[in-house]
Amino acid sequence: MKRDFNAPLTFAGKPIEENKAVLTLGGVSVNALLVMPDNEPNLQAEEKFKRYKLAERLSAGGVQDLSVDELALVKRLVGNMYQPIIVGASFDLFERELPPEPVEDKAADTTEQPNAADPAPVSYQA
Predict the structure, then answer these.
(1) How much is the pTM?
(2) Hey, what's the torsion of the CAs at 123, 124, 125, 126, to 10 degrees?
(3) Contact 23, 17 (CB under 8 A)
(4) Which of 13, 58, 92, 117 is the most buried (most CB within 10 A)?
(5) pLDDT surpasses 90 at 29
(6) According to the 3-state scheme, what is the secondary structure of the chain?
């Protein structure tokens, strides 16, 4: 299941910021994987290592292919750790299937132009 871990979290069409940095699906996912939850005090070393390796992979950002179990784990941990605004924005992205990759058209100009109508960010404080 491919998901874009560079995708920014948004609320009402605006990026969510924390300390003037836009939060991404990758950032909250990695954080949730690496924090030791209070409700799992006896987590085994193998499970900790599994989470560490997944966090390491997701920290690279970009489109990552996750198994159903990996996606379920990340969703559960994000859901347990964050406030509703982050959980909702993250789950919107977790549930969204990425479109098939387009065939590259070398003749097309793919230079991204800035958009003056970009919405102002939403500030988030933990």
Answers:
(1) 0.77
(2) -170
(3) yes
(4) 58
(5) yes
(6) CEEECCCECEECCEEEEECCEECEHHHHHHHHHHCCCCCCCCCCHHHHHHHHHHHHHHCCCCEEECCHHHHHHHHHHHHHHCCHHHHHHHHHHHHCCCCCCCCCCCCCCCCCCCCCCCCCCEECCC
Residue written as token pair 């995708």: 7
Q: Note the pLDDT of residue 119.
A: 66
Summarised one tens digit per residue, pLDDT across range 61-114 is 999 999 999 999 999 999 999 999 999 999 999 998 877 777 666 555 555 555
What are the phi and psi torsion angles at 62 (to 5°)?
Answer: 70, -165
